[in-house]
Request: fold
Amino acid sequence: MVPIQMVDLKRQYLKIKQQVDEAVINVMNNTAFINGKAVADFTASLSSYLNVPYVIPCANGTDALQIAMMVLGLEPGDEVITPSFTYIATTEVMALLRLTPVFVDVDPQTFCIDPMAIRKAITSKTKAIVPVHLYGQSADMEEIMKIANEHSLYVIEDNAQAIGATIKYSDGSIRKTGTIGHIGCTSFFPSKNLGAFGDGGAIFTHDETLADKIRMIANHGQSKRYYHDIVGCNSRLDSMQAAILDIKLKHLDAYNHSRQQAAAFYTAAFANHPKVKTPVIAEGNHHVFHQYTLILEDVDRDGLVEYLSQQGIPAMIYYPVPAHKQKMFSFLHLPEVDLPITDWLTQRVVSLPIHSELDQEQLGHITKHVLQFINK
Reply:
């Protein structure tokens, strides 16, 4: 059996090796390492794939979130509603910009931000909502956009884990995550469903004025060289990563389909087990399974992770400490919040290997040993 990885980037690369190698060598030969043709080509491809007119590549997903908040003119002390059950990048940029994160709870079924919790958290200082499409599934964007419109709030989608995912609205229309709010942000970290061979990110919008300003902020605040009209930063996707991503984008739907097949295998294996709750796919959602995450009851989670490691099976806990309990926010003197679902999940979730290269033998090995441990 091939050794099991949480994400098997080597096997994925080998299937497209010739195309990737040629693309990298082409960049090396033309030496347009920054803002070369490869960046323009990938930008156009991603715009077409997402059906969004403006795509601005940047250096990483965290930069994408920071630039999105900068472009909206949010000021120190403005409140931004966001889930605590997420990776820290979503909220650390708020601290950097001296915004006030308002942490709210998530839906226990989908792990995504709870719209009812958003409603309850809105105050006169609220300026934006940052939903996270966690683990590859869309948050309830139809309801979130309704709330945002009612209160004149901006919506920035953290789509780092869900590129290619969709949600079906009540009118039958299908929307791709990251393209629904005022701004969408994503990451091309290597382990993402669409991953580079290094760092990378992108920002999406339907608003031309926002797009122009995003480009300026990402380029030192300039629209004309050496004329800096606003405070910006230096955040670029390099040509080599763009060339690789343009190739991998053509395979993204197939990669996501393979993840869905692996997820279906897991779900069938653990179906109706009293100690295991498998992921719930919300009605109308197209889940792309960036992670496959179980909720355990009456199971020694740390013991399971250790046992699986002994069997050559990696497993991860995303995220053991929620954002609202991180020491990094102590300087903001935030009020204590009661997030029972978030706290409950952090004690029970565990994620199994999920990627486009998992085969039946590997999946069988993983599920056999998970069941052996929890049944003992």
The mean pLDDT is 96. The CA atoms of residues 85 and 342 lie 6 Å apart.
